[in-house]
Every structure is written in structure tokens, then in C-alpha cells.
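Hi again,

Forgot to attach this to my earlier email, sorry! This is the prediction with pyridoxal-5'-phosphate bound. I've pasted everything inline since the attachment limit keeps bouncing my files.
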Amino acid sequence: MKPFVNLAEQRNAYRQEFEEIEKDILDSGCYIGGPQVKNLEKELSCYIGKGKNNGKSYETITCGSGTDALTIALMALAPEKGFRHQDEIIVPDFTFIAPAESISALGAMPKFADINPKTLQIAPESVAKLVNSNTRGIIAVNLFGQCAPYGELREIADKFGLWIIEDSAQAFGAYQSGKPACTFGDIAITSFYPTKPLGCYGDGGALFTQDRALAEKIRMIANHGSRGHYEHEIIGMNSRLDALQAGILRVKLRHLDEELAARRQNAVKYNSFFISVWNQMLCPGNRVTPQSTAEENLSTYAQYTVLAENRGNFIKRLQQAEIPYCIHYPTPLHSQPCFKAQNLDPQMNAIADEICHKVVSLPVCAFTDVDEIIGRLTKAMG
Ligand SMILES: *Cc1c(COP(=O)(O)O)cnc(C)c1O
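C-alpha cells for the complex follow:
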């Protein structure tokens, strides 16, 4: 079976560029920080500075992982004495654990908002219901590569004096209304985990902001609370991207737009197959509905995810056809054992609950032969 994300084939495609930069970095004697990291940060800032941005410029601060980036963003936005247990931060109920985990790890309380049943993104009306005098901010997630509904989220945030952290771990390279992802939050973050649309060969992450003072604070937090010279103004941590990862990312960034174009084309092929072939041919009860993309959004398709009416049956067919698949995500966050102490109502967020039982993600990376997969699916219909 072909891998779900074909990183070996990607390496083959750009092998010469990788090997050149890897050799340069290993021979340079400079392994942490240095010119590769500085240049990558400039190139990432430049990338999100394009599009409809009214000439605004962004600063990029790289760090050790997407989860670190979330923790650092929260530390940068926390009240001076840190979060207290009463401080509430709203996150989508249907996503990877990292945003909720980082809130709890810093002593605040995650509050879980329900999602839109079609786009699977955080639902602003559910967010609005959760806001109270203890709410400090929102972590919005650009799930599966599509931007969250920032127009409505920003209205809520402004009305109640909340900040927004944009978790764009899956969506570097996405757009909403012509504006690049990573420009919607007071702070945005991304992850360079190998299987993300822009991934390195280990762990890595970055934060983005246009607020110079915040950028400076973020840089200090990621560097032991210091501007350097062994003076530590605030409590920070050690979180940095190394030179080798930065070099790998600089190569991949040059190819990102062509890869995203291929992912989008793959998604179009799947969509038309499921809507005009699969759902027409199979008996009712076996319908497969692709995650819908809001009109203003251009997704990175970090995941190509469908809702299967009868997931057990759909998975059986995938297995017979030897098509790799993943379940993102099997459980809403409010049902995770680590949040048991919060005594949450198991019935809360009915949509997130239902969606978790239907989702299936299919291979979609730029090195996936979707025509071949659709051929196998066609045979599996019989
Ligand atoms: C992957 C991911 C993260 C965490 O990134 P790491 O680099 O793995 O720490 C955070 N949020 C979301 C939505 C993710 O998909």
C-alpha cells in the first residue's frame, strides 16, 4: 500500500536541492539559529505578506513545534501574573488536542465550542454562547486546511474584548477572501510536523504577528525569556527551529504553491467522483459527503475529509481496495479522558459528536495518484 502522505516521493522530486542545502548546513558548523533560520523567517513573512493585505507586514518567529507555538502565543497574551483556573479560552471541540492541551497546561480552562456540520469549522454562534466575564480569548483552528470564519469570530472578539489565536498548523498557504492564512489572529501559529502541507524532517513550528511589541515578547519567551546576553526578563522556555530544518523548509517553501495546486486539483477530482458517481451508484445509506469549503476560502487540503453515512461499510471497501485512510478525529475533545476532571456534559456539542462518527480522510498530498485511487474506488463500489 502507498503511504498516506508520500514524503519519500517528495524527497525524490527535490532531491538535488535538499542534498545541496543539507551538505552546506552540516559543513557550516552553525546548527541552531544563524542565516538559514533568519532567511526562512523572512521568506515566511514575505509569503503571508502577499495577497490582499493593505501593505501590512508580518513578523515570523520560528520555534520547536506547533504545540510550543500555541503555548508561547498563550504565554505572550496571558495577564502579567499568568492565567488563573477561572480564565476561560474557547476552542473548537472537533480538532487535534494541542490547542486545548496548551490552555490547560498553562492553568487556564478550555471551553469547547461546537462546529458547523458542513465546513466542520468552529461555529461562531456556539462561541458567542460560551462567552462570559471569565473568557479571555479564542483559539480558532483552520481545520484540514480551511480558514475558520474570521469575519464573525472577530466581531465576537471585538464586542467582548477578546484576543484570537489562529491555529494554522494545517493551513499555511490557505486564503480567505484573498487574504493569506496566518494573518487573521492577533497571533497566528503553524506547525512544520513532517506530514503537514509545509513540513520539515522533524519537529518545528512558527508564530506570526504584525504587532512589533508582541513579536519581541514572543522571541524572548522562545529564548528563555531573554534578548540574549544571559539577562532573563521574563520566564520563558527553550523552543527553537534548528538550521537543518530551516534549510529543508526553505526548499519546500519554493515548491509550496505548486504542491497546493496539486492538492486542490486532487480534492476537485475526489469531490466530483463522490458527488456524481459514488452517491449516484450506491444504495441510500452509503452516501459520502465531502467536507464543504466556504465560498471565501481556498484550502490547503491538509486533509481531504469526507463524512460517510455508514463509516464501517465505507472503511471495509477502502480496506478491500487497499486505499490508506485516517480518522481525523475519532473523539470530540470534551470526551477525552484528560478533561474528565472538568465534569463536562457528555451530550454537549451534538454536531461535533456526530461528525466524529462519520469522518474519514483520504490521501491527498501532491504525490498521490488520485486517478488511480478513484479507479480502485470505482471497482470497490461493486
Ligand atoms: C499538528 C497540529 C498542532 C501541533 O503541531 P505540532 O508541531 O505537532 O506540535 C496544533 N494544532 C493543530 C490543529 C494541528 O493539526
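The longest helix spans residues 243-281. The pocket of pyridoxal-5'-phosphate is lined by residues 65-67, 95-96, 98-99, 141, 167, 169-170, 191, 193, 203, 205 (CB under 6 Å).

That should be everything now.

G.
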